[in-house]
């Protein structure tokens, strides 16, 4: 039997990744175009700042099709868990989109942030005979045996949200956001802001990092670390707030009491930004007198942009369902799908916040 | 003179205070290196209706830990074990109160409480009741079923946070009513101006310390708890209701956890069940140990635990601010903690004394030989 045959290999792989099991809080991945998935900005045809890299398909010939002839493509979605508002909105977008009206049926598996459980989830989906699998992996390694099983069973598999460190002949495509691009979007906004407003004061940045080692933290931090020396920006404080409001607030308080001056706050998700703003208020400072840069774009955060508390949010939209659906449809129609698809990245500032809040996710 | 020194050095509070001074010194050094003088560390300024300064921040931030340490001290003393469920109880009581305050409107409002369904006082009272119930459960397991405290409280340590997630639907419900934040920040008037410039948690922590100290000092309760902790069986034979004393210790600890949970949820204006009180149980146990209390139960010192709690928070704050890279932070904390705990070891002092005496003896002998 296939499963017992690969069981040993899997066990070894599982043991190797067990320690790395608790990554990202914000989750990641997304695109500006998500909320308007039908607008044709997704996939290989993405325009604007979209970057779509085509790699060799590496002998991966599976394409989604309606194998059981019920007129619907059954999509098995192996989700990370319900770790944050971002993730909840992400799940919701799959549940809303993959319905009979759009030609789909959804089989949903929630891994509760447990990497071992998620491997079992994918096996269960294979057993159920779903026609496509969408995997939003808890961890990025140790997936070879499971992916091989899916391939052997003839089920095309899409990796979404977080990238895997496996050979690319084991999956159809990766679809998700580009964290580093989000960071670059934020950095670019700051550069433009400084130019437009003729800021001559030295730029002193407080850098609130996400959970160290998570995809979102690595990408967003890299963009700032790369850009700071070139622009002669000083990063005066750098510390993780673990993507939570409470930690963001506490860390910010400890910075405020040390007395170094700063004028920019670069906070790698909305929750930490809320905390930083609370800390500023508690210290009797006016958040409006700082340039505050945030990530994700929860509804409350967009409201804060309108209120002038946050200056810019680099968007990380979780509404991936419709875009993944588009990819599946295209692939089923015989279109060649790129191995990695990133989508349009955008930002929210005072110029477009009033418009953006209408489609903002979460609370 | 040397006798006075001896009295001071051998005093129970000596080492906890030395530790606090050491950590404060570390903080001052950091301030000096970043700003050029020690002044800013002691500076307290009034800006926009809030009193500000490093000392205020540290006291404010240590409030939850001080309150937890009070309850933990009593539990450790009476049961010779620790209550490791306090962090989870914080999350659970916070989740229940937010759930009740926004009862029925949470889902429709995208997990925001826009108006109170029940008065805030009721919500907070219910949080306290949840803490007490958790305490009764822990206390029942330990005192009646004679389960080891660590094992008994392990149940709520894992289950409590799970229950909190169920109550909050795995979301992070927020409370948008301004008065909800009073407990965790400042008491304000209707225009949003601060009525009292000092953060409320400091008052709550101070009140809890005073009440606990007064009750234990002016009733026989303090002695009773110590007696039960030293020998529960002997105390029972003498006529003390040992199991009831242990039960009450856990109830008090649960109530303390609930109050700490209220402050923590009020600080962020919502309940993040994944992170509320996370790992705080360990800091609370550490505070008790740093305060010079024996984890084997019996005699205890509340003031020691309070100093221990403030020491831990001072350390956390300084480590955050000296740009110790985040992934190394626990290591530095561990090193300092190891040093502090070793300094307090009862075996170390006689060892040092013997060592000193040996060196001195060597010296005098050499002189005599000449």
Could you characterize the architecture of this molecule?
The complex is a heterodimer of chains A (363) and B (370). Chain A has 363 residues and is an alpha/beta fold. Chain A has 11 helices and 13 strands. Chain A folds into 2 domains: 201 residues, Rossmann fold (3-Layer(aba) Sandwich), CATH 3.40.50.2300; 136 residues, Response regulator (Rossmann fold, 3-Layer(aba) Sandwich), CATH 3.40.50. The radius of gyration of chain A is 21 Å and the shape is elongated. About 14% of the residues of chain A have low confidence. Chain B is mainly α and 370 residues long. Chain B has a single domain, classed as ABC transporter involved in vitamin B12 uptake, BtuC (Orthogonal Bundle). Helix content of chain B is 68%, strand content 3%. Chain B is built from 15 helices and 4 strands. Chain B has a two-stranded antiparallel ribbon with strand order 1-2. A two-stranded parallel ribbon of chain B has the order 3-4. In chain B, a hairpin with a 2-residue loop joins β1 and β2. Chain B is globular. The chains are: A alpha/beta (363), B mainly alpha (370). The interface between A and B is large, with 42 and 46 residues.
Provide keyphrases for this structure:
heterodimer; A: 363 residues; alpha/beta; Rossmann fold; 2 domains; B: 370 residues; mainly alpha; two-stranded antiparallel ribbon; two-stranded parallel sheet; 15 helices; 4 strands; globular
Briefly characterize the structure.
The complex is a heterodimer of chains A (about 375) and B (about 375). Chain A has about 375 residues and is of the alpha/beta class. Chain A folds into 2 domains: about 1-175 and about 320-345, Rossmann fold; about 180-315, Rossmann fold, CATH 3.40.50.2300.
């Amino acid at each position: 039997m296939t499963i017992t045959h690969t069981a040993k290999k899997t066990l070894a792989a599982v043991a190797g990744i067990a320690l790395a099991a608790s990554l990202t809080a914000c989750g990641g991945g997304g695109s500006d175009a998500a909320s308007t998935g039908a607008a044709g900005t997704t996939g290989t045809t993405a325009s604007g700042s979209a970057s779509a890299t085509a790699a060799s398909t590496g002998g991966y010939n599976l394409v989604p099709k309606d194998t059981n002839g019920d007129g619907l493509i059954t999509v098995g979605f192996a989700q990370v868990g319900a770790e944050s508002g971002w993730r909840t909105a992400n799940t919701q977008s799959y549940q809303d989109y993959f319905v009979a009206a759009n030609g789909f049926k959804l089989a949903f598996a929630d891994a509760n942030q447990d990497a071992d459980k998620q491997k079992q989830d994918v096996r269960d989906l294979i057993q159920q005979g779903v026609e496509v699998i969408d995997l939003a992996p808890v961890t990025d390694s140790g997936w070879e045996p499971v992916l091989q099983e899916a391939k052997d069973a003839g089920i095309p598999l899409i990796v979404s949200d977080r990238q895997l460190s496996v050979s690319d002949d084991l999956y159809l495509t990766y679809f998700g956001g580009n964290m580093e691009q989000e960071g670059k979007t934020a950095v670019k906004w700051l550069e433009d802001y400084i130019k437009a407003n003729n800021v001559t004061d030295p730029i002193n940045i407080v850098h609130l990092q996400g959970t160290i080692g998570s995809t979102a933290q690595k990408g967003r931090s890299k963009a700032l670390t790369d850009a700071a020396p070139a622009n002669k920006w000083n990063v005066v404080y750098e510390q993780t707030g673990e993507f939570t409001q409470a930690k963001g607030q506490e860390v910010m308080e400890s910075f405020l009491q040390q007395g170094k001056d700063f004028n920019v706050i670069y906070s790698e998700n909305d929750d930490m930004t809320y905390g930083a703003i609370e800390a500023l208020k508690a210290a009797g400072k006016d958040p409006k007198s700082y340039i505050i840069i945030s990530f994700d774009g929860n509804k409350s955060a967009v409201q804060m942009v309108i209120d002038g508390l946050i200056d810019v949010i680099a968007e990380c939209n979780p509404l991936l369902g419709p875009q993944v659906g588009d990819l599946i449809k295209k692939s089923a129609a015989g279109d060649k799908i790129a191995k990695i698809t990133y989508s349009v990245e955008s930002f929210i500032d005072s110029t477009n916040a009033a418009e953006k809040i209408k489609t903002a996710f979460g609370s | 003179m040397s006798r006075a020194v001896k009295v001071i050095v051998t005093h129970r509070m000596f080492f906890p205070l030395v530790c606090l001074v050491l950590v404060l010194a570390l903080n001052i050094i950091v301030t000096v290196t970043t700003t050029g003088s020690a002044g800013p560390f002691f500076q307290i300024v009034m800006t926009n209706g809030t009193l500000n300064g490093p000392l205020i921040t540290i006291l404010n931030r240590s409030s939850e830990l001080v309150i937890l340490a009070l309850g933990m001290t009593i539990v450790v003393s009476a049961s010779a074990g620790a209550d490791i469920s306090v962090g989870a109880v914080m999350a659970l009581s916070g989740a229940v109160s937010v759930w009740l305050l926004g009862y029925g409107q949470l889902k429709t409002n995208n997990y925001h409480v826009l108006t109170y369904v029940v008065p805030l006082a009721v919500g907070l009272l219910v949080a306290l009741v949840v803490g007490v119930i958790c305490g009764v459960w822990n206390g029942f397991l330990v005192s009646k079923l004679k389960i080891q405290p660590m094992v008994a409280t392990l149940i709520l340590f894992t289950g409590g946070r799970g229950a909190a997630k169920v109550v909050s639907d795995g979301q992070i419900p927020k409370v948008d009513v301004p008065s909800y934040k009073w407990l965790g920040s400042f008491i304000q008037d209707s225009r949003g101006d601060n009525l009292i410039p000092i953060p409320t948690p400091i008052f709550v922590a101070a009140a809890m310390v005073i009440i606990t100290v007064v009750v234990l000092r002016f009733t026989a309760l303090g002695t009773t708890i110590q007696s039960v902790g030293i020998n529960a069986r002997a105390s029972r034979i003498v006529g003390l209701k040992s199991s009831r004393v242990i039960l009450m210790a856990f109830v008090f600890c649960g109530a303390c956890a609930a109050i700490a949970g209220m402050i923590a949820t009020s600080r962020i204006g919502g309940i993040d069940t994944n992170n509320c009180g996370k790992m705080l149980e360990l800091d609370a146990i550490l505070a008790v140990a740093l305060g010079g209390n024996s984890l084997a139960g019996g005699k205890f010192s509340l003031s020691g635990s309070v100093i221990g709690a403030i020491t831990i928070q001072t350390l956390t704050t300084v480590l955050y601010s000296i740009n110790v890279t985040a992934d190394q932070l626990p290591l530095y904390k561990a090193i300092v903690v190891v040093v502090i705990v070793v300094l307090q070891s009862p075996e170390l002092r006689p060892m040092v004394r013997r060592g000193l005496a040996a060196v001195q003896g060597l010296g005098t002998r050499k002189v005599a030989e000449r």
